[in-house]
Specification:
Shape: globular
CATH topology of the largest domain: Dihydrodipicolinate Reductase, domain 2
Helix content: 10-25%
Strand order of the largest sheet: 9-10-11-8-12-13-14-15
Order of helices and strands: EHEEEHEHEHEHEHEEEEEEE
Low-confidence stretches: 242-257, 259-288
Number of strands: 15
Largest sheet: 8 strands, mixed
Number of domains: 2
Strand content: 25-35%
Structural class: alpha/beta
Distance between the termini: 40 Å
Length: 288
Amino acid sequence: MGAYSEGIRIGVVGVGYWGSKHLRVLRSTTGAATVVGVDQRFTGNDDSPQLLDFDVVGYSDIEQALPDVDAVVIATPPSTHARLSLQAIKAGKHVLVEKPLATTTAEAQLVVDAAESAGLVLMAGHTLEHNAAAHKLRDLIRGGHLGRLYYFDCARLNLGLYQPDVAVIMDLAPHDISVANFVLSSRPSAVTAWGSRHVHPEYADVAHLLRDYGDLGIRATIQVSWLSPQKVRRSRPWARRRWPSRTRTSSTASPTAPGHPPTATAALTFFRYSNASRYRCASSGRSS
């Protein structure tokens, strides 16, 4: 990427809900020389590129745009991710794909192998791994500041938006899967998932995942839903923190669970992060 001394020319493929956000941010990003949009809705009276409302050039087809860009952001429906990624990689372009990378393991492996063979950068849109709070939580866990971990609890719930080509796990769970792996610095040894279809005629709209991290001896639970009237975004570990007996007197020490020495006080510790990059640690009702 260092060869682009004047900046990188980027094409955003799919200028819908997420694609339009990519366009807006990339236009003000240092290092982006030019940004173009690619969407079939940009078809004009001829095959020439169109000037869009937000002052960027628009193409109706990715094949049109590929000669004019160095990298692409793919923000189209998930069922098209693998095909468009392979098309861009074949043309020698770096690729950022909104989650999920593909809708099947076989397709995802094809894309990864193609990018490796071509020596190109391939990234999935795991944006929450770059959240300052996620980094703080990982540091707290690595440093043992939360005590002994019990389990990791995640929920991503809202009313819609229904996707036409994938189930709710593909749509909502990738964020929590990536965050759990990131903050725990591990990958699960076993995964169990189950879902149910209530409104969508084909795909599950409510689902649960149970992920066993065998090396850590803990589990992570992930709940996702398109049917919740309340929007919920939650990622938090539960852990037991012990306080040295010298900091508490016997008259004020809290009861301890069976099997734990009476000289130590146990408290549940949890962590919550928000998209505003704020964090809060709480132990025994105290916040910091």
